[in-house]
Protein: PepSY domain-containing protein
Amino acid sequence: MRPLLVRLHRWFGLGIAAFLFIAGLTGAVIAWDHELDALLNPTFFHSTTPGAPLPSLELAKRLEAEEPHAEVTYMPLSVEPGQTWMARVSPRIDPRTGAPYPLDFNQVALDPVTGAEQGRRMWGAPSLKPLNLIPFLYQLHYTLFLPTKLGIDFSVWTMGVVGMVWLLDGFIAIVLAFPNLKSWRKSFAFRVKRGGYTLAFDLHRSGGVWLWGLLIVVAVTSISMNLGAQVVRPVVSVFSTLAPDPFRTVVPGPGLTAAEADAARDRIAGLAAQAGQREGISAPPGGLFAIPSVGTYAVGYFAAGNDHGDVGLGNPWLIFNGRTGALLASQIPGQGSAGDIFIQAQFPLHSGRIAGLPGRIAITFVGLFVAALSVTGVVIWLKKARARRAGKLAAQAKAAKLAAAAAALQTAPERAIH
Structure:
């Protein structure tokens, strides 16, 4: 059985090593995406104009007036002092062609006091420029920039399958790390003084043992981040009742015109605070997400600057009908069945934010270690492959030598006769 597990571990590891190396390094960086992005791009994130900020709805209207081919699809409803008002936009539909207007940006930062633009960018564009670097790494982490063809999102399926292989390989690895009861101590040791290949082997084996639990958590949550609807929810539903996913089960309505979308945005922003109180949400409305093409709006509840949800299971969201203001669905962390709470915990666990600052530090360390696991795994394979090749060549040489000796013995009598 062990030889089979060794072979599976070898080929599973080699098959996903490059993916895990990229995901590990980028994951370590994007655990601090806001902080690093702001450090690299201070004028995009920070505003120094004194005075009271303009209402968010007013800022959205000014932005759309300046850019009539763009509509605001996400905006903060409040801004931290000294920060810009940062909105996401999408292109409007050109009535002449039925296609979206071309836009070379999807995120805009405004001075919240004056409404003046401080910067714009195409979030997630493949670019190493400081303005695009962190969003590029974020997008690379989750998608590898793989395409969607024939209705198949290859980024989702590739990273989801990598996560499943990684999870299975993790259980194989822990079995291989403890070959017998007598040698269990070796699986926790690091022979630092010996260095070289020995240390690489210990980092791979013993490091994996020490961090095995965290690695399994990251593997499971990586599956959830990519194949939540396709794999994780069906599996969890076998063990626990699940409420419908509010972001996937809301029936879309007819699209809204630009004038109707403006009115709907005002309507939803106006009723959001009372709607949150009725649902028992203590946090204020913090962000408004709009999908005018289907007449649906969602409000996230959080204090200014806490859009990621820094501790716990994340932020509450309520989803509304844009025309009527009726509440369509809700996602409130901590509410629901055990399965619902498990699903809610996936992103906070994957990002480390469930434990606040210590969790993010842990995820950074795990991401770097995942990259190191990939490298040391390849190093171990190369070393053993060379040894196997050298052994095979030595065996072939020995066999050839023996064959030559046997042939010489057979011909010796004939040479003696002649």
In short: The mean pLDDT is 92. The chain is about 55% helix and 10% strand. The beta strands are 70-76, 85-91, 107-110, 117-121, 148-149, 152-153, 285-291, 296-301, 317-321, 327-331. The longest strand covers residues 70-76.
